[in-house]
Write a structure and sequence with these properties.
- InterPro entries: ARM-like, ARM-type_fold, Rotatin.
- One of its GO terms (cellular component) is centrosome.
- It comes from Pieris macdunnoughi.
- It is built from 31 helices and no strands.
- By secondary structure, it is an all-alpha fold.
- It has a domain of about 90 residues.
- The protein is elongated.
Length: about 500
């Protein structure tokens, strides 16, 4: 048996080298007998002489999971046999004091989680029961909770040692990558992490980075070599982990909302490298999505700055560049999430964010304007935002007024009727959209006319004199000849609007 394990381990070790080539990986993944036999060997270690063979087999599986057919076969086998032996073995590896076993388990679990993300198999892994259910309230009932628990314990150990603050720590990046991959695909593990107050642990890690980097004071050599600065690379992994823990997890977002001061202090460092800039924007996008407490936290002022004001400044910088980066639409989407909060909205309107699209349009750059249209629509749902939008639309650089803004104009007409009626350009946009627009544009224009005319005799007179009533009547006649369902619904709305204009 000892000789057999040694031979098996040596074969797997040799294949681990060869399988890094795509063609070899595809060949092994398509050899079903080989893959089935490999999966059968992945079970908890019962004797020391099995360690080498299990370690190499686990590494080989991790490499093979990059191939879709291999991951499909693995998950099919696990579901068919309702087996949790592979997960118990990974848990056994991570509970070991052997660094090599821990790193092997983390590598394989990372690849497993990433294959789940591609194949959408999180339902299965979330419902694999643990074999070690105890009486304690915190004792995990499911295998993902056990994996999450041991990973959190390892993370806390690294946090106490603080090696990640002084040098490039490969173990730290492997650990964070593994946890981020698991949390991103397992809703159950995210809820368990909140139960064990892991968001607070992550905040402690961010505070440690903040304190360490504050002492450095952005020396010139750090700025020049930021992309290869170890501490910034380690910070990237914490942000990635924090983002994964908040995905579709409201309780986790609320935990992070309690303290965002570290992000305010770390913001200048976030802006130093492209990975950090990209990661912090994705984190804020997740954090602000349907999170009222997060919107308030975005306005929290530290040393004269808030996260909302920093994002606004980022939008202005990106829009002013000859060629804006992908950060611009991300930043605009973050601000769009925050518009229901009055304080956030006030910060946005005090800056030139809402007028930045004028700069992009003047340079014929339409690749980022869709995100701006959505921000305008979100702002126009409120009186102050609608007023600001109408002021921006008076700019010559927005001539002709873009049709995608019609939905925003419909909201603005409801809040800023007088300003709307005093603008011949806006009324011309409504008339033109009714006569030549597609169905969705006709609906938006009709909604705007209805909002202007409802219960206001003077507005009806202005709309009639501007030709809106004639445009409505002409459009109704055109839609009556269409059998399209959407067109018929638009016709109903137009008919209702026309009756209001005539009364």
């Amino acid at each position: 048996m000892l000789e057999q394990d040694s031979i098996s381990g040596s074969i797997c070790r040799t294949l681990c080298v060869a399988v890094r080539h795509k063609c070899v990986r595809a060949l092994l993944a398509s050899t079903k007998d080989c893959l089935h036999n490999l999966i059968d060997t992945l079970r908890p270690i019962e004797a020391d002489n099995q360690i080498f063979a299990r370690t190499q087999a686990t590494l080989l599986l991790g490499y093979l999971l990059n191939d879709t057919s291999a991951s499909d076969t693995l998950w099919w086998e696990l579901k068919k046999n309702n087996s949790n032996l592979l997960f118990e073995m990974l848990l056994q590896f991570m509970e070991s004091d052997d660094i090599e076993l821990q790193s092997t388990a983390m590598f394989c679990l990372t690849q497993l989680a990433q294959s789940i993300r591609k194949e959408n198999k999180h339902t299965f892994i979330d419902n694999v029961r643990s074999g070690n259910v105890g009486s304690s309230d915190c004792q995990p009932e499911y295998i993902v909770e056990e994996l999450c628990k041991i990973l959190m314990e390892i993370f806390k150990e690294h946090l106490e040692k603080k090696n990640f603050l002084t040098r490039q720590d490969d173990t730290w990046s492997s650990l964070c990558s593994c946890m981020a991959s698991l949390l991103s695909v397992s809703p159950r593990s995210r809820m368990y992490a909140v139960h064990r107050q892991f968001p607070r642990v992550l905040n402690l890690a961010l505070q440690a980075f903040r304190d360490k980097l504050s002492l450095q004071g952005k020396p010139v050599d750090v700025i020049r070599n930021a992309n290869s600065e170890p501490i910034l690379n380690n910070l990237y992994w914490v942000l990635t982990l924090a983002n994964s823990s908040m995905l579709d997890c409201a309780p986790c977002k609320e935990c992070f909302s309690e303290d965002v001061t570290s992000h305010n202090k770390l913001w200048p460092w976030y802006m130093m490298t492209e990975p950090l800039r990209d990661t912090i924007m994705h984190l804020l996008l997740t954090f602000t999505n349907d999170n009222p407490k997060g919107w308030s936290a975005m306005c929290a002022c530290v040393s004269g700055h808030s996260l909302a004001s920093e994002v606004c400044a980022l939008v202005s910088r990106e829009a002013s560049r000859p060629r804006a980066s992908h950060l611009l639409p991300l930043a605009l989407r973050v601000l769009t999430h925050c518009t229901p909060n009055q304080h956030c909205r006030s910060l946005i309107l005090k800056t030139d964010v809402i007028s930045c699209a004028c700069k992009l349009r003047a340079r014929n750059n339409d690749s980022y304007t869709e995100a701006w249209y959505k921000l305008c629509e979100a702002l126009s749902r409120h009186a102050d935002g609608a007023s600001a939008l109408i002021n921006v639309l008076s700019s010559p650089t927005l001539r002709p007024i873009p049709r995608p803004l019609l939905t925003s104009l419909a909201h603005a007409a409801h809040h800023q009727r007088l300003a709307f009626l005093q603008s011949p350009d806006l009324l011309e946009v409504l008339s033109g959209s009714l006569l030549t627009g597609d169905t969705s544009e006709i609906v938006s224009a009709s909604r705007a006319v209805w909002a202007l005319a409802a219960n206001n005799h003077r507005a009806k007179l202005v709309l009639r004199s501007s030709g809106i009533t004639t445009a409505v009547q002409t459009t109704m006649q055109r839609l009556q000849r269409s059998n399209d369902v959407a067109a018929q619904r638009a016709l109903q709305l137009l008919t209702y609007t026309y009756n209001i204009l005539q009364t």
